[in-house]
Each structure stands twice: as C-alpha cells, then as structure tokens.
C-alpha cells in the first residue's frame, strides 16, 4: 500500500515538473518577443512587402 502511495506521488510530481517547464518556456518566448519586438516587426513587414512586390 505504501509503495502505491509513493508511486502516485512520483507521478504527480513529474506532471508538476512538466507544467513548470512549459511555463518557463512560455515565459522565455514572451520575453524574447518583447525584447526583439521591433526587429521581428521589421522582418515581418519586409517579408510581406517583398511578397507583395513580387505579384505572388
């Protein structure tokens, strides 16, 4: 019975760690997006203007 409780705790702990990892990755992606906002916007605008100019 004790082993079953330990196994349940271990599984729950791994799920919690996965959520923490996902939250950290999302936070990093948001931070990078905020830091490089102007560069990303300029890049996207350049790509779309080139596509528009090529009569694609």
Walk me through the structure:
This protein has 56 residues and is mainly alpha-helical. 91% of the residues lie in helices and 0% in strands. The chain contains two helices and no strands. It has helices at residues 2-35, 37-53. The longest helix has 34 residues, at 2-35.
Q: Features of this protein?
A:
mainly alpha; 2 helices; 56 residues
Topology (elements, then pairings):
Layout: H1 2-35, H2 37-53
Please tell me the overall pLDDT.
86
What is the chain-wise order of helices and strands? Answer: HH
Structural class: mainly alpha
What is the rounded distance between the termini? 67 Å
Helix content: over 70%
Unreliable segments of 5+ consecutive residues: none
**Share of β-strand residues:** under 5%
Number of strands: 0
Number of helices: 2
* Biggest sheet layout: none
Rg for CA atoms: 22 Å
Query: Based on CA inertia axes, which overall geometry fits?
Result: rod-shaped
Summarize the entry for a quick read.
The chain is mainly α and 56 residues long. It is built from two helices and no strands. The chain has helices at 2-35, 37-53.
